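REQUEST ID: PR-0412
SUBMITTED BY: lab tech R.K.
PRIORITY: routine
TASK: structure prediction, single protein chain
INPUT:
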Amino acid sequence: MSTPNGPDQKIVITAATGRLGRLVVAELLNQGLPAGNIAAAVRSPQTAASLAELGVEIRNADYTEPQTLGPAFAGADRLLLIPSAEYGQRFPQMKNAIDAAVKANVSQIAYTSFVNTPVSTLRLADEHK
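STATUS: complete
OUTPUT:
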């Protein structure tokens, strides 16, 4: 089966044990991407046992520990960057992640933002502006 990402592309999903991250991993598998082409970059690898059982590679990645990000993103062709829910920390955390992705030569980075960011009155939206 042909997948939209190619047969030998490595996709790294950050926050893969969260609600959105798990849905993304499940959809990639549903679309036919082999589990070996997916890496789940998570802050607590022990919480990713169910993903590992599917054949997904588990990598330690903590946005507040930049030294973990380079190895987590190594060999990735694509990176889905799902921010943490820590208010007040998104900009420095995402800067750490993007800097690490650039150093790891990730060719495509996708960032999950916030709906209607420019006009939202929710405090969390401010961090996505």
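NOTES: The beta strands are 11-14, 38-42, 57-60, 78-81, 108-111.
REVIEWED BY: pending
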